């Protein structure tokens, strides 16, 4: 490279433009430029030192100024252009008065140039060939910008490499072999991260570093040893080794269940899991809304429970239960709703629809649930045995395994939350301090909320499924890609495993059971009394005994007596007729409210009785002090009576 500067790789100074004798190596230029090695100094170069004799000797000159080392690039009469050696930067001009003493510095290492080094040298060649760039800042920057554009880099990087070359005479990369100590340290870091950081206790990375220091780099008194790894090196090893991206970290800190739910790779499609109608995914949740009593809107009855049954193949919402009950009774009610005629159910809430809008009916051939207690109950097992239903229990804490029903809960509630905000809907800040009491905002009754959900279900069952994995046959027949449309198509093509059952039988089978006692008044439990004149003889025989009854928790008007595997109807007695049409929970709330009223009236009655007793005693005391008592005959009493009568008339 013809640059007029020292070339530490060859040990020779190459002549450049402006030299007085371009044919003799080792001679200086007219302005006495320094920085050349001669063959006579080869021994010194091999020892790793660049000698610094008097100027003009053709050897690189280094000066120590205020504790820093500078290389003299161009020497002039008044001073010279210097560049920092340890932290190369832009060359500066310094007069001779500011020069310090001359020093020797280690020579740059010899060795073959790598491709990267040669590429950098070729890139800055125009700058090194133009010696005016040392003194002309504007020219230097203009050429750096042009080079950066040609090589698709930045001018800052070009200048940095140029300054390094001026200061060192090379830009050879420093390749340092990893010390055995460094390798041992990496093993210690890996073991510490595995032991302390990848833990279910989920400590921070800094806590793991502190534990490492305490375990490996402290003496017996707990004082830190002089040589200990820095926090920066520990953190750098963690990220450079890619340990923050490995699945092992998530599994160790968050658990396998969290990794499988939220981080594992996804493949396949939920509707392709099954190929026939009748595989229902079931789950339950508590609605994010508070409701009021339908008989007294000033009474808040809490948050209702929602149970859903969603068909796997068509994504159709086949059954729903909305109420205050939970457990196996709610599961049975949801299955009964799935098996019933939806036109009749919706008509009870004033919703007019057709069978095509909600075509599902009949019991499913299979229910897919988690290991919830209500889905593993004896009554659900009895139902499965009686009708030949299958029950598939998925692992707990894995909502992603039954994603359709889980997502349906979000779709249901997201449809009304914005409209009912401020009307009992629970916001995310419900658990924060000074948050709103959403119970005081409740306005909807259970019936109104159920009607709202039914209308939303009708919409969801007829919405377009944009990402549904339709088969070629479905595309050829132009099947409407809606849950209801897919259901109808599969049912017409015989791809249905639904079980047909009698309406009354499935209704009675789904009713909750309760233990009651037969008394003179009838069949009693929880303050309700039921009778049936046609069963008078049977009830007379069962008087004093405990029996099992099935009742509708949403309507206390009627119940059924379970006797010899049959369901005998019962009706509310006249003494309890005020509860007709109420849900059992609402009736209990109404009764509690009535009892509180009676208790308050009873307290007032006690106060009135005390007041009456006090006033009576006072009246008697005044009467006794009004006159003297003496014995009188009957004639005197008659005369006194006549006198009193005259005075009152």
Automatic annotation (TrEMBL):
Residues 1-22, 639-649 have a biased composition (Basic and acidic residues). Residues 267-491 form the Integrase catalytic domain. Residues 1-37, 623-649 are annotated as: Disordered. Pfam families: Mu-transpos_C (PF09299). This is Transposase family protein. It comes from Agathobaculum ammoniilyticum. Gene3D superfamilies: Ribonuclease H-like superfamily/Ribonuclease H (3.30.420.10).
């Amino acid at each position: 490279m013809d640059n007029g500067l020292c070339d530490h790789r060859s040990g020779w100074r190459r002549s450049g433009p402006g030299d007085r004798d371009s044919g003799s190596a080792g001679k200086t230029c007219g302005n006495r430029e320094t920085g050349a090695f001669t063959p006579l100094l080869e021994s010194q170069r091999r020892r790793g030192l660049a000698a610094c004799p008097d100027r003009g000797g053709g050897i690189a000159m280094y000066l120590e100024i205020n504790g820093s080392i500078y290389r003299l690039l161009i020497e002039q009469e008044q001073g010279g252009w210097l560049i920092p050696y340890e932290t190369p930067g832009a060359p500066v001009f310094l007069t001779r008065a500011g020069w310090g003493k001359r020093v020797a510095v280690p020579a740059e290492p010899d060795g073959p140039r790598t491709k990267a080094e040669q590429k950098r040298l070729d890139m800055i060649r125009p700058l090194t060939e133009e010696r005016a760039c040392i003194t002309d800042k504007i020219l230097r920057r203009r050429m750096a910008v042009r080079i950066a554009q040609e090589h698709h880099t930045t001018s800052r990087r070009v200048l940095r490499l140029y300054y390094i070359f001026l200061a060192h005479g090379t830009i050879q990369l420093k390749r340092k072999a990893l010390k055995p100590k460094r390798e041992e340290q990496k093993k210690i870091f890996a073991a510490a991260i595995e032991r302390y950081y990848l833990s279910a206790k989920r400590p921070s990375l800094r806590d793991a570093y502190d534990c490492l220091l305490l375990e490996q780099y402290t003496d017996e008194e707990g004082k830190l040893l002089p040589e200990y790894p820095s926090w920066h090196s520990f953190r750098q090893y963690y990220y450079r080794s890619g340990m923050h991206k490995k699945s092992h970290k998530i599994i160790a800190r968050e658990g396998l269940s969290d990794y499988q739910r939220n981080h594992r790779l996804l493949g396949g499609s939920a509707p392709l899991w099954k190929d026939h109608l009748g595989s229902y995914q079931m789950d339950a949740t508590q609605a994010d809304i508070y409701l009021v009593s339908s008989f007294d809107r000033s009474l808040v009855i809490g948050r209702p429970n929602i149970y859903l049954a969603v068909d796997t193949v068509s994504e159709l919402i086949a059954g729903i239960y909305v109420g205050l009950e939970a457990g196996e009774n709610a599961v049975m009610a949801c299955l009964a709703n799935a098996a019933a005629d939806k036109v009749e159910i919706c008509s009870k809430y004033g919703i007019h629809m057709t069978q095509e809008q909600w075509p599902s009916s009949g019991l499913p051939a299979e229910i897919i649930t988690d290991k919830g207690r209500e889905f593993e109950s004896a009554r659900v097992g009895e139902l499965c045995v009686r009708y030949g239903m299958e029950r598939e229990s998925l692992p707990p804490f894995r909502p992603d395994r039954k994603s359709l029903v889980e997502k349906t809960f979000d779709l249901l509630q997201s449809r009304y939350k914005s409209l009912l905000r401020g009307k009992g809907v629970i916001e995310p800040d419900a658990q924060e301090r000074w948050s709103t009491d959403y119970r005081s905002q409740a306005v909807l009754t259970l019936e109104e909320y159920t009607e709202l959900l039914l209308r939303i279900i009708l919409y969801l069952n007829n919405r377009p499924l944009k990402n549904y994995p339709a088969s070629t046959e479905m595309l050829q027949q132009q099947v409407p890609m809606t849950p209801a449309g897919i259901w109808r198509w599969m049912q017409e093509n015989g791809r249905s495993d639904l079980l047909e059952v009698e309406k009354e039988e499935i209704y009675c089978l789904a009713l909750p059971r309760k233990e009651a006692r037969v008394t003179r008044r009838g069949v009693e439990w929880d303050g309700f009394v039921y009778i049936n004149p046609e069963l008078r003889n049977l009830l007379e025989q069962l008087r004093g005994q405990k029996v099992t009854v099935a009742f509708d928790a949403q309507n206390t008007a009627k119940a059924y007596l379970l006797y010899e595997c049959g369901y005998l109807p019962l009706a509310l007695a006249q003494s309890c007729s005020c509860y007709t049409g109420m849900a059992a929970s609402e009736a209990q709330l109404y009764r509690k409210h009535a009892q509180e009223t009676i208790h308050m009236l009873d307290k007032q009655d006690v106060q009135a009785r005390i007041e009456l007793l006090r006033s009576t005693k006072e009246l008697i005391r005044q009467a006794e002090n009004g006159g003297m008592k003496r014995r009188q005959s009957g004639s005197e009493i008659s005369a006194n009576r006549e006198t009193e009568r005259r005075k009152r008339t």
